[in-house]
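haha ok so turns out i had the wrong file open the whole time. this is the CORRECT one, sorry everyone. sequence first:
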Amino acid sequence: MRIIAGSLKGRKLEAPDWDGLRPTSDKLRETLFNVIAPRVPEAIVLDVFAGSGAIGLEALSRGASRAVFIDNDRRAASLIAANATRCGVNERCVIIRDAAERVLQIPIDGDPFDLVMLDPPYAYAALADVIHAAAKHLAPEGLLILEHATRRTLPTIDGVQLMRTVRSGDSSLTMFEVR
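then structure:
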């Protein structure tokens, strides 16, 4: 894994060495940032189910001003911290080690966010609830991006409008805006 573009281009990121974490591929991350490029400079980013932190760190490399990472796994929180240190962006990062469902119910330092990235496990049961809760943290004109299995049928969520879905093999990126 590496940072694909921006000021940190080429920096290698540590990948997880345990089962159960599915990092976003470099190809899918590149596709994502090609689509959202105009929204990234100066953005405040919320990376939920952050894993290695690659999405938020890529955003920082491409000009985002700040990134807040949420992951419940202590190993993931340590990995994000190590990757932020490796990239020299610690001062622009906040790492919250707690369950996304709980954190998204309260105000988060940095609210509202210009970009909210959700990358839950593909079999995540409470998808509608977490999308709805995350949307409450979006700034006006903000964008919520969900990475999910292409085969998964997405729920209809009150208050958010599906804008676009980009498919790449088994994974898809679906983008929502607040109505």
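The radius of gyration is 15 Å.
again sry for the mixup
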